[in-house]
Request: fold
Amino acid sequence: MATVDIRNVRKSYGQVEAIKGIDVAVRDGEFLVLLGPSGCGKSTLLRMVAGLESITGGEIAIGGRVVNELDPKDRDIAMVFQNYALYPHMTVFDNMAYGLKIRGIPKPEIQTRVAKAAEILELGRFLDRRPSQLSGGQRQRVAMGRAIVREPSAFLFDEPLSNLDAKLRTQMRVEIKRLQDRLGITSLYVTHDQVEAMTLADRILVMNHGVAEQIGTPLEVYQRPESLFVAGFIGSPPMNVLDARFDADGRAVAMPGGAVLPLDRPRPADAGRAVKLGIRPEHLALDAAPGASSILVELVEALGADTVVYGRLPDGESLVIRMAGLPSCREGDRLAVAPQPGALHFFDATTGRRLGEAA
Amino acid sequence: MQRRVIFDNKLLPYLLLAPQVAVTLVFFIWPAAQAIWQSVHIQDAFGLRSEFVWFENFQVVLSDPNYVGTVKTTAIFSVAVTALSLGVALLLAVLADSKIKGARAYKTLLIWPYALAPAVAAVLWMFIFNPEIGSLGRLLNRLGYDWDYRLNGDQALTMVVLAASWKQVSYNFIFFLAGLQAIPRSVMEAASIDGAGPARRFWSITFPLLSPTTFFLLVVDMVYAFFETFGTIHALTQGGPGKATETLIFRVYQDGVVNNDLGGSSAQSVILMVIVIALTAVQFRFVERKVHYA
Ligand SMILES: Nc1ncnc2c1ncn2[C@@H]1O[C@H](COP(=O)(O)OP(=O)(O)OP(=O)(O)O)[C@@H](O)[C@H]1O
Ligand SMILES: [Mg+2]
Reply:
């Protein structure tokens, strides 16, 4: 077990800067999820921790020891790859035992460690099979087994579930969570699936274009997104973002389409300022309260437990609302909607960073 | 349940197969049958009459002490050519597969020798190894090493082995490189995280995963060394000096075409065929078992 410290780490491929200075201190036993859209540099960062990619700038320390110049084998980490990367010519047993044999662990201990991992992962029946004779989910478990028998300081996962179908993914997600709770090994986990991130993470690092947009617990990231990017990336359907303006004394905010929402806490410092206003679809309710906006319903999606309503404000901006239960409106209806109190997020109109809270 | 394509026309399937069957008949079965027929006959000096003689041709061939020598030369030659061309090609392919600058140009250059006719290749080798005009040949002599493959049998054999391997290296290289590139990078990365150094990764991961390719090339190279090196030997040494570079296939040509001993030559062809069939069978029986078809 160990901490993983990433200090101002950079990575360039020629002229292209893929990682532009990331700082994060992963605590001992913590589960950190790297979340971000495709191409944002998640894998690159993980592979730098693994030693598969050289580090252009900054420092990575595992267990307090700087590993920049160490080979992957000397970093005491184990990695689970997206395509599992099992050794096709070896049996399941040999796949798991390979790293132990190389490290000169005595045979009896290899036997017990592999047997234990196989038991945890329910792979006992498959130890003599080749990877080609296993299903996707079973291969995934072998890859996990290969990582846990090593008893490393840290686990690195690069989208380990993305090749599985939806049902199996959910099941494996729970298994990974259980495993990590049980073993308590520091883990870095790359994904672009926000549900995985929210459910697995102790903390999430949200990445975009090679920078860390926000590092925080799943709830922090959901409740207090630090930037428009995070606000839009976390949550489904994504947060509504509208062009709005504080009124002259900072006591209310003018919505597009004319409605004026009173603020529960006035912001005199921001009086008259143009901002981006964020409201989560689940924080909008059908309500004729003061400041409610009128929308024209364009599409209603009934999901069973929830209903998602796509509407349009009078000035043409779209607004998404998520309500519990079955639909109570139809396409073409006009509705009055208002946000729940305290559910407004304000972002700087140019930088997209979150505005500080009202005093 | 097995699905079958139904032909209304009963003749069509045979018609479609006919070209393949014809080619096999004309270029393989017919000559082979002729060789077998010839091998049990003796022709008179003018080639007008032939007489059935049972296995006399075989007896004569096999009791000729020179023939045993040729078998030995062939064994050394083919094992050396196969081992050398496989080894060098594998080494080059591993180098080309790792990230190096100018890898494309390098690959193209390596593939060229395969496109050369044996006679042209032989001339190139002459320019290198000839003791009077060859660059390396002259250098060796100047350094005090007595190099002349036209007089020294071992040197001649070394040279034809080099020349014959060189051509086959290109062929092997292409297959090895394709084989290497089919190994997922992440598998090698997983091995290096598991603690395997480069040598260990090669022997425990790369080599086993390449084994289908290696096995295929082993069979192909063996057949190449036995049958297709005639042109190279003919152009470089004509089997000499003495009989130092005379392989079985060269001797078949020598006895049949030059010495006009059709019966003896045919008997040798038949023996050669049997040897190659036996070798291939042995390879499939014993070596293929160690091959992992992933
Ligand atoms: N070898 C390379 N040479 C040049 N650019 C590269 C190389 N590898 C990655 N990149 C670039 O670095 C950026 C980050 O790539 P990375 O693989 O880390 O993305 P990712 O976040 O893992 O995306 P995904 O979710 O699609 O896997 C990308 O823009 C990619 O084009
Ligand atoms: Mg990736």
User: Anything to note?
Assistant: Residues A 13, 16, 18, 36, 38-44, 192 surround adenosine-5'-triphosphate (ligand 1) (CB under 6 Å). The two ends of chain B are 26 Å apart (CA to CA). The longest helix of chain B spans residues 65-97.
